[in-house]
Design a protein that fits this description.
By secondary structure, this protein is mostly beta strands. It has 1 helix and 11 strands, in the order ββββββαβββββ. Strands 1-4-5-7-8-9-10-11 form an 8-stranded antiparallel β-barrel.
């Protein structure tokens, strides 16, 4: 069984939410950890755990970031971590998988499904074996208790309920 850890210097954990239903606001987490355990070279038996520090959230706007950390959204004082634990990996072909797992935001745990593209494994110039993955998925924020909402003067929504998850992940095989 091989253990792999995420390389935060070469990974991005992002989410996208429609604002005013016309543009996306992108946010990311700056502090996170992930572990992948796999006995097979093709990762078809992978078991994955992930944790993000809610206080490391950034949308390039300090006022919005503070609002996201407040009780209106993530309530980081009470729920400082977002976690994910895989429950199943389905291999579609050599590069594509469906990853199912339990995502916990605030104190709400729900199953989520992520599309995973395996982008390859290689040995870097420092002798470390690295594997790359791109993950995509969509959740409804209200399913996790993120129910804050507002409307424009014309009655349009300020934020969509759908949140797209976009992750580019480089994993390092542990010795």
């Amino acid at each position: 069984m091989a253990t792999w850890k995420i390389d935060p210097a070469h990974s991005e954990i992002e989410f996208k939410v429609k604002h005013l239903m016309i543009t996306n606001v992108t946010g990311h987490f700056g502090e996170y950890s992930a572990t992948l355990e796999s006995g097979k070279d093709d990762f078809s038996d992978a078991v994955i755990s992930f944790e993000a520090d809610v206080n490391s959230i950034s949308t390039k706007n300090q006022q919005r970031d503070e609002h996201l950390k407040s009780a209106d959204f993530f309530d980081s004082a009470k729920y400082p971590k977002i976690t994910f634990s895989s429950t199943e990996v389905k291999k579609k072909d050599a590069e594509n998988f469906v990853l199912t797992g339990d995502l916990t935001i605030r104190d709400v745990t729900r199953p989520v499904e992520l599309e995973v593209e395996y982008t390859g494994t290689l040995v870097d110039p420092y002798g470390q074996t690295k594997a790359g993955f791109e993950l995509k998925g969509k959740i409804n924020r209200k399913d996790f208790g993120l129910t804050w909402s507002a409307t424009t003067e014309a009655g349009g929504l300020v934020l969509s309920d759908d949140v797209r998850l976009v992750l580019a992940v480089q994993m390092v095989k542990q010795a």
